[in-house]
Structure formats: C-alpha cells, structure tokens
Fold this protein.
Amino acid sequence: MKQETRKEEIIRVAAKLFKEKGYSAVTMRDLATAMGIKAASLYNHINSKQDILNTIIISIAEEFTQGMKLVQDSKLSCIDKLKQIVALHVKIASENIYGMASLNNDWMHLETQLNYYLSLRGNYEKDFLSIIQQGIESSELKNVNPEIVMFSMLTTLRSLYIWIPKKEELNANDLANNLNNVLIHGINI
Amino acid sequence: MKQETRKEEIIRVAAKLFKEKGYSAVTMRDLATAMGIKAASLYNHINSKQDILNTIIISIAEEFTQGMKLVQDSKLSCIDKLKQIVALHVKIASENIYGMASLNNDWMHLETQLNYYLSLRGNYEKDFLSIIQQGIESSELKNVNPEIVMFSMLTTLRSLYIWIPKKEELNANDLANNLNNVLIHGINI
DNA sequence: GTCTATATTTTGATAGAC
DNA sequence: GTCTATCAAAATATAGAC
C-alpha cells in the first residue's frame, strides 16, 4: 500500500469538493480550508486549479479507454462484452466516486486537455456502439435502435457515482449482476 | 402564441448558457453579451442571477410533479404507467432542452428554493419507486431490484436533454417508443 | 430599456519569511 | 511545507443619466 503524497491528497480532496459543487464553484480557498491549510500553500504542490481538474479527468478517461481495449480484444460474445463493460463501469465508479462526477459534469472546463478528452470519449462511444451493432447483426440482440441502447446503458453507467454511495449494502458484484439483468434482459415478464 | 417578454428571453438565453458551462461558470457579462446588451441592463428585468436559476429549475420540477400526479391518478397498468412516465420525460426534455441541464446539474446552487426542490424530487422518486414495486407485487414485472430499475430508468430519462439535440430526425413519439422497448423489454433475444 | 460609472467582494495566483 | 501579505483580474450588483 503506497503512501499517499500531499499532492495526491489535494487532488483527492478537490475531487470530493468538485462533486458537491462543481469545478467552477469550488475556490482554492475552499480547497485549502478542506485541507486545513491556507490557499497559498496549495501552490507548493500543484501548479493551478486547472491542473487538478486535468489530473482527475484524464486519469479516469484513460482507465476507461484501457478497459474498452481489453473487452474488444477478447473473444467474448456480444452480450458478454456488454456485461464486461457494465463491470468496468461499476469497478471504476466504485473506486473513484468523486472523480466520476468531474468526468461527467466538468469536462467542458478542461482547457489544454479538452480535445484529448473528447477524442478518448468519442472513441469509447464508437467502440461501444460497434459492439451493439455486431450483436444485432449476429442476431444476439433484438433489432433495436443501437444508438438508443448505447445512450441508455451509458447514461445509466455514467451516473453510477451518484447512486453507489446511497447503496453501500450492495457489493460491486451484486450491483453489476443486477444492472446486467435490468439493462440487458428488461424488466417485464 | 404569446409574445415572449424580455425577462423570459433573458431566462431562455441564460438556460442555454447554463447548459454549456454550468451556472457557476456563466457570468452576468456572458449573459449580457449573449443578449446583446450590457450587464447592468439585465437588472432592469431580473433581480439576481440566483433568481434566474430558481425560475428555470422550479418551473420544470413542478411540471414533473404535475405529470406524475396525472399518472398516479390514472387506472393504467403498471407497465402503461411506466410508459406514461417515459413519455412525460420525452415531452418535457424536448420542450426544454436547456432547462433540463440546469435541473440536473445546477440544483445544488439553489439557495432559498433548495429545500423545496429537494422535496419535489424526493416525492417524485418515491412515487416512481412505488409504481415499480406495485408492478413486481402484481407479477407484471420480473422480480428485479426496484431501486436499480428506477435508478436506471431515471438516469436515462434525466439525460435525454443531452441526446435529443443530436438526434433531430427522431420525433418524440418514435423516441418514446424506442425507449420503452429498450427500458422495459430489454435488448436480448 | 439601455447606458456609463462605480462600489464591494471574491477570485487565482505570486513573493518572500520562517 | 506553511505562513502573511499582496496583486491583478473578474465577479455581482447599484445609482443615476438618457
């Protein structure tokens, strides 16, 4: 278990504040107070507020990109690939509740890294859609609108960070299984 | 067709800017520029930035509350009630793309109206959950986790404002039908 | 209904002492 | 690694002329 550096601690606390009020509404004084120090002291560890946001968002976005690559390279059926994607989201969201909020809500406040983030997101969605389309072609999935399926699954998965903290009694495995049932098999008899 | 007042125009333009950058990141100067006037002139029509947010969010939240009441008072089956809720979200989101963004992302910046908003939202979710639970009891729905079903449906529906503008070729009816299929009947064969 | 001018507060960030 | 002191810019909002 690696010891958390002061810089990492600042980023972790910042992500928590960003989740509660959003990047723009959190001031460096808010962050300093939460750390128990003065605002000026933050700059001994980080370069700027913007740098904190970059670190939070890009690290998670790259984690998703890596996870999607593993799913694609696998020889799984389409439905099993979708289940792997559900598990990927449950895992990342569980481990990074606060960061997921910034990824979802504050990506537009990225500056130098905005285009890089958008390219990662665009590719992720392209790959996701392609899995669904293959499932329809191979008759593994119903002939549904693939974009609506992706939209529905992805918004649910991207919002897990809101919901996981309210349901601490569900472990990651149970949550992923329940989500698979609901998202893939539907809810009617 | 009632003529739009200057105040309504300001609120409409503000909602559009709030959607793009969030409430906190939009300045009164941004809003004034978008209106083609100076910031000070805004205050001839509105009391404060906060008042704009109140108006945007509370009006939509009350619209949802009203719609849910109609669904509850109906004698429809559980699945038909869920379909009515889907249609309600599609309708409100279609008519108020920008306002839905504030409702979803900037409710925490409400001040005097925060508790009122939270009570409306809490009651809405309570009613939604109750419909799902009744469907399970009456065997109209599978024995799924009702909270996961509500979470999945509600996050998808609440995010429609992101997605509708990208799919202008789908009218509200087609979208609602497609969503019903995906959300209720699932996607696998 | 819009303007200029301005008051007041808050913001991100830096310099330099300890 | 933290502090005090401070800067320069930007924020919401008001007053009063036109």
Observations:
- The mean pLDDT of chain B is 97.
